[in-house]
Amino acid sequence: MAKIGRNAPCPCGSGKKYKHCHLGKELPAEVVASQSLATTAPAGGSLVDANVPLAADDWDEDWDPALDDLTDEELDELLDEEIPLSPAEQLVDEAWDANRRWRRLELARQALDLDPNCVDAYMLLAHDARTHGMDPLESYAQAVAAGERALGADELGAARKHGDLWANPDSEAYRKARYYTAITLADRGQRDAAIDELRQLMQLDARDTMRAHVLLLPLLMHEDRDTEADELAARYASDPNTNWEVANGLRMFQRQGDTLFARRSLARAFKVIPELIPYFEGEKRAPEDLPVDDDIDTIYDPAFAASMTAWLQQPLYRQTPGATEWARAVAAAGEDAMLPTDPALIGNGPTFFLNTFDEQVYTTCPTCHGPTAKDVEHLAVLYEPDNMLVVKADCLACHRCDLLIADRRDVEDRMRRMSKRITPSPVGRDYIMVGTVPWQKLRTTHAHPADAAWIRETMVPFRGHMLYDREFQERTEHAAQEYIDAIAPAFESLSGDTDQWMVQ
User: Fold this and answer.
1) Sign of dihedral through CA atoms 25, 31, 36, 41?
2) Number of H helices, E strands in the chain
């Protein structure tokens, strides 16, 4: 997982800075998974185009060429450098650390006396609003207004045109205020207003650093705005966020029924946060109101993430005929839900294993531990919704176990290069390897590498898939635990002052 700066927003979504939230603590599984494709893509994955810019075409105009000469370590050090806080921001920082809510309220008001445009102070007031008998939506509106005054009309006008507000570090609290305004509107049933708020935020921030699309998709589905939902899903198809996977799985079920890729989307979400399953099996009912973490010091855990997802998604599943029963079947199938059930995609070929571990090379077989041999194969790839292509890959084979191993990085690099001459492009789509195509037939027929009918007729389907190398995972987890045990005494010697540490 990439290093997170202490002053960066915590990726758990709490609204606090990383140093005041999860620095020195374990991040929830959903967050870790959302930053690592390898943990959520067994036997396949979602192909991300590394060459597609994340924002407007001119997003890098302000990039300083001198930064190109810095090493990764020097650039990380520069990005993690402490940003001096204004007196008002220092009061808000102190308020987040206060144990008493009345003290937080007092410090927030002092911060606003110093700086009426202190967005963070209004955000803190919104967080504690219900406790003090205040309306959180009013506090968020004040935060948005304060942010607009602080940023200025020219800055916002340029951001609406170029979508580059993400590049302004002073806009972080403003973007956060708009996002939480949308959540609060959705909680009150004002979905159209919430959709408009999220659309405006995504126009200002073309990189969508607040991940507004994750909330937008289920809201569009609630309002039966199917065309907009499909367009949004096509744009962000590769997002492994659990909320997104749950909504996108249902969207595919609504359009095409019980398909492999609909099952894979929901099954990945259940694997990352198994606490979701009781909500879809009928054992738990989703909260009617937006779940709120009342204890500011409580670690953001999977159970809370599950309640948040269920709050937004469970009503959608209940409104869709057959969806609840389908979700129960996916939960019961477990990891097998990620694999093909079509008899045409199951055959006498070898068992296939897609190596998603960047640091692992399988010179020995993960099953029998005997040596593997190099092998070049033409893999048949099925990608959503029902497209196919053939990609040449450098593989490793264990002939004793009849196991074929391909490297995810190698396969995806080749698929990216092929994407420019294939329609529809596999970029941004979920995929799974389903067999091999004999190279002799490719050479003699000169078939197009994306002719789905020819590939289905010619390929030798895999007999099965090895989803994970559990032994390697256990070794990795054991090594991580040994590292944590080794540094624990040093943490204790700091008397809880984890601000001196950088977690990687």
Assistant:
1) positive
2) 20, 7
What one-letter code names the amino acid at 159? A
Are the beta carbons of 242 and 221 closer than 8 angstroms? no
- DSSP character at residue 223: T
- Name the nearest CA neighbour of 166 among 212, 117, 126, 124: 212
Q: Which amino acid makes up residue 263?
A: R
Residue whose C-alpha is closest to residue 87's, from 54, 121, 63, 60? 121
Q: What contacts 101, CB < 8 A, 6 or more positions away?
A: 128, 131, 132
Return the DSSP state at 396. Answer: E
Q: Does residue 261 have a pLDDT over 70?
A: yes
Q: How far is CA 385 from CA 48, 261, 266, 267, 429, in A?
A: 16, 7, 15, 17, 8
pLDDT of 272 reads 87
Beta bridge partners of 394: 376
Distance (Å, whole) CA 417 – CA 422: 10
Ordered DSSP codes for 226-254 = HHHHHHHHHHSTT---HHHHHHHHHHHHH
The predicted-structure confidence for 421-479, as pLDDT tens digits, reads as follows 888 888 878 899 999 999 888 877 766 778 899 999 999 999 999 877 666 666 666 66
pLDDT band (50, 70, 90) for residue 240: confident
300's enclosing H/E stretch is none
Cα separation, 171 vs 153, in Å, equals: 13
- Looking at every residue in the chain, the average pLDDT score rounds to 80
Q: How far, in Å, CA of 111 to CA of 117, rounded?
A: 9
Q: Give bridge partners of residue 337 from the DSSP assignment.
A: none
CA distance 291 to 186: 12
- Three-state DSSP at 375 gives strand
Question: Is 213 a residue whose pLDDT tops 70?
Answer: yes
Where do we find the tokens 């290069």? 417
Collapse the DSSP code of 258 into the 3-class scheme (helix H, G, I; strand E, B; otherwise coil) and give the result: coil
Helix axes 212-222, 302-319, angle to 10 degrees: 30
Question: For residues 413 and 47, is the Cβ–Cβ distance under 8 A?
Answer: no
The DSSP symbol for 58 reads T
Q: CA angle 414-417-418, nearest 5°?
A: 90
CB 460 within 8 A of CB 349: yes
Helix (H, G, I), strand (E, B) or coil at 3: coil
Q: Give all strands (DSSP E) within 309-386, no chain letters.
A: 349-355, 373-383
d(CA 194, CA 216): 8
Could you tell me the pTM of the whole model?
0.76
Look at residues 318, 309, 317, 271 and name the one whose alpha carbon lies nearest to residue 287.
309
For residues 404 and 436, the answer to whether their CB atoms sit within 8 Å is yes
